[in-house]
Each structure stands twice: as structure tokens, then as C-alpha cells.
Fold this sequence. Notes:
CATH architecture of the largest domain: 4-Layer Sandwich
Bound molecules: 5-amino-5-deoxy-1-O-phosphono-D-mannitol
Number of domains: 3
Number of strands: 24
Largest sheet: 8 strands, antiparallel
Amino acid sequence: MCGIVGCIGKKDVVCNVLSGLETIEYRGYDSAGIVCRDENTQALVWVKACGDLVALKEALVEKPLHAPIALGHTRWATHGGVTVENTHPHFDCHHTIALVHNGIIENYRALRADLESRGHVFRSQTDTEAVAHVLEEKLKTTASPKEALLATVKELEGSFALAILLRDLDDTLLFVRNRSPLCVGLGEDSASVVSDMLSLDQSIQQYAILPDQTIGIVRANFCEVYNFDGSPCELVYQPFTWLGQLKNKKNYEHYMLKEIHEQKQVIIDVVKYVRTLGNNWYSAIGLQKEEIQKLESIFGVACGTSYHAACMAHQYMRSIAHIHSYAERASEFLYQPEMPLKNCLYYVLSQSGETADTLETLRMLKKSGQKVLGIINVPTSSMARESTGILHMNAGLEVAVASTKSFTVQVVLLYWLAYKIAQEKGLVDSFAVEQAENDLLVCAQLLDGMIDKYQATIDERATYYASFSKYIFLGRQESFPFAQEAALKLKEIAYIFVEAYQAGELKHGPLALVDKNMPVVVFSSLDPIIYRKLLSNVQEVKARGGIVIAFAFEGQNELIAVASESFVFPVVAVHLGPLVMVSLMQYWVYRIALSLGRSIDKPRNLAKSVTVE
Length: 613
Ligand code: M6R
């Protein structure tokens, strides 16, 4: 959430900062700003603009900036509205310090009151600005920038990744890292401080993820790091190869559409990956064979879409591996009383690997002595580094804020994991595991065909679907979390209100809502018993004059007959129904949002990576 890019070079680096920000803009796009030092006057000069980076670029045409050292930020507003004043960088009283910040300063109110009482003048409503004023005081009362930073962090509570440019310190950027990620890159004549290594530029030859609770000083090809207690901290550098512009929409109109179409390949890739793990899968997930055999339960913690994948796993674990399964939203789990389960595998799921609530959960579980498996897409992320075991999602860069392919890969990995646990427990043999992997590949092959089959219909009817202001989505067993995921997608990118319900619950209240103004979308099941139950629920809707749109399977003729319209899918393995529906469901939502003229890849008020609790 929010992005930081600071660059040092021989020539002008403002363009590097700008292209770095472009790479991570999906992390926050409420407003953006860049600051550097004017080479003639030595004063700090900056440009800020509300809106996405297009607005900042336009502002830079009006007021061009050029300098060999510059700092930029793209903001997702937390404290203070979306205004130019609240846009980073923020300054001290005399514009001698410019700083950008990711995270939240939790004690900023007390700090601000105290600083204002001593005459500091604030210009924004942000939590961040307080840090600039604290540092202003510390620079006056300590012997060096290092001492000033160490004294400053003592005053701060919360999570903060900070990059700082001082008017009076040539060629140097300062940084602080506490809970929010930050990384440093070094080149022959250059250096960068960035919140995401995706935004390192071509000049960088090696990079290091900064350890938590550190401060540091960066110059071209130089970085000095200290722990919060002032002791020196050694960085572990990795070679950096710039992979070119990773963000590439190809010929698609939106990243979301491209990512929907990538799902066939990512399923193939992830099945290949689990197959290559062979017997190493125990160490991959961080457990001994005996520990897996003794497993009594599995507990997944995640947020948003990843949480829905954990809910689907809940069904898989119970029906395939015959173990108790729990799925919790990280933001809730974190504040419940600790009740550690014996013989339980805890796992966290995250595309970004940086979601604050999930990351805190991982840390809390580890602190209480649990091993924690991470199912993570970004291999360099905090969660990937801190988990005791890891299954890599291998989904590649997901740019659209709405998760698509990462959900699919999480479901695939958890389905496979259920089979592997079942195998260790003697419930299935290796042939069944291989069959399960093949079943996943069958789904992959069917995905694009489903879009081809219904694209014309959906495109034509998109405005009709978009004419409703509310929907109910129904599912049962694994098709219920899938209905929840579909609902999240429609809310997130079309801004249409949807309630997802377990179909059997409808008659306990929500049935009262059903009328001709609120379509009911039903996601069917391949389990014959569940299907019959679902059918009765749909009949109840129909009997009350409801409009039913069915995602059904071939042969489910009664459902197809009762529905006003249906999308019909081939029969696959019994629990994999959602996996064959996933691309079309996402495409359907995409087209609705498109017909409403929504900002598909960057929906309002959101950001891709939610690094604040
Ligand atoms: O990176 P994560 O998987 O941890 O992200 C969790 C949620 O923020 C994320 O899935 C969010 O709900 C998506 N934007 C939904 O499409």
C-alpha cells in the first residue's frame, strides 16, 4: 500500500523515479509526488498531483524537475483526504527535510499536539508529517543524521518505511524500516531505496531486502545500515538482473483481462511445480513426514480473495484429507484469544506476501511456537521470507487490483495439498494424487473455451446485467466461497452491491429480498446430493418471481430449465466445479464493470497490496 522510490545516480534520475513509481502504481493511486534538490539554489523542489501518475506527469511538464538524486511516492490515503497537501513528500517547518512514508504512525496525534505546542507548523492532515517535524528537532539536538534517525524512531509507534532527502546532505538518501518493507539497490554509480524491488532500475547490480527495525544511509554504490539500538547491521546482497518492463498488457485492453486469460498457463505451471517437488514436498511445506501423518487439522488465515481460497480449501481438507479445517480472516484472527491447536498445520495465503494483517498473523503464530506454511506469489516478499515452509504460487506478476489468477493458483495448490495429506494418511494412493493433478490440468484446458463459448452473449447482455443495482449470489459447499469470491469481484470492480449466501440459508431471511429487481446468481455443484438441495433452493427463488442466472454443469437440466439464463460447463472432478467456472465468472464481472465505465485495473478507493492493518 503506497509506493516509495528513491534514486541516486550520476545524471538526472527523476525519470527513473517516475518509471519506478509506474511499476508499483497499483499499490496506491490516490495521488503522487516527487522531490529533489534544485541544482542552482540547493533548495528542495517538488511536484505533487492528485490522481494517478498521469496527473503527476502532466504536472511535471508544467514544472520540470531534473536532479541526480530524487525521491517519489504514490499514495493510498489513510490519514487525511486525497489532496495535494496530503500527498507525499512531507516536510519539516523550513523545507529542509523531505520524506515519504509507507505504513501508519499510530501515535501521530500525540506527537503532533506536542510539536505544535512547541511552534511547529503543520501543512497536512497526515500522520506522516509528524515524522518530518520530529526529525527536524532531532537533527538539531544530535551529532549526525544517523543519531537523529535513531532518536526519531524512538518516538514513533506503528509501521513505517521512510525514505528521506535532506536539503543539506549532498548525494545521500536516508531510510528507516519498521514493519513495512523496504529494499536497497546498488549500482556502479547509483543506488536506490524502494518499497518493492520491482521498481529498481537498470543501473542496479545488486539488491538487499532491509531487515526490520533498521535505519540507514545510502549513497551511490554505498549503503550503511544500523539496527534500532545503533549497532551495525550486515546486509545480504543478491545479484539484480533487470527483467525489462515486467508490466506488459500485451494486446489486452486491461491487465485484468490479460490475467484472466493467463489462468490456463498458470495452472499448468503450478502443477509442473508441485510435480517437481517430489519427496521434497515435506521440506517445502516445512514439516516432517511423521508430522503430516499426525495432522488432525489445518488452519488457513488470509484476507480478501486469498481468504476465499482458504474457504475452498476448508471443503477440500475435510472431504479429501478427512481432517478438521478452519479458515479465518487475518484481521479477525489477530485479535482473538490465542487457542493453539495441537497437530495443526497453520498456513497463510497471500498473493503479495505483504498484506499487513496476514503478515502480522504469520509473525504472531511463529512467536507462539507454530510452524507456518506460506502460500505466496511474490517470492521476495516478507511472508515468503518469514514462513517456515513455502509453496510458491508461480502465478507471475498480477497487476490488476482485482485478483484473478492468484486465486486460481491458490485453489489448485490447496486441492493438491489436500490430496498429499490424504496420501500420507493412507486415505489415497499415489495414483489418486496423480489423477488429481491431471484433473487440475483438465480444468486448465477448458478455461479459455468457456470464455469463447459465452463471450458474444455476455458482451451483448453486459448492459442488462449492469442495470441491476444489487444481486444475491448463491452456492453450497465449495461453490459458496466461490460465490463469495464472485461477489467480491463484482463489488470491487463494478461497485455493485452483492450478498453471497449459502443457498440453504436463503429461506431463513434473505428470501424476503427476492423480487424482479434483484437477480439471483447460482453457482452449482457437481455433487449430486448438493445439486438436488441447491435446485430446491433455486425453485424457492423462482416461485417468488426472482430472476435466476445459473452457472450450471452439463446434464443439470432441471436447473437450466428453471433459470432465466444459464452458462453451462463441462463436468470435471467433483470438487473442481469452481475451477472450471472461474475464468468465465471473472469475465462476466469484467464485462459488467466495463459497461459501467469503471476503472477496471485500478478500482476506486483500493490498492493492490494492503500493507496497513
Ligand atoms: O496479497 P494478498 O493475497 O494478501 O491480498 C489480500 C487481499 O487484499 C486481496 O485478495 C483483495 O481482496 C483483492 N483485491 C481482491 O480482488
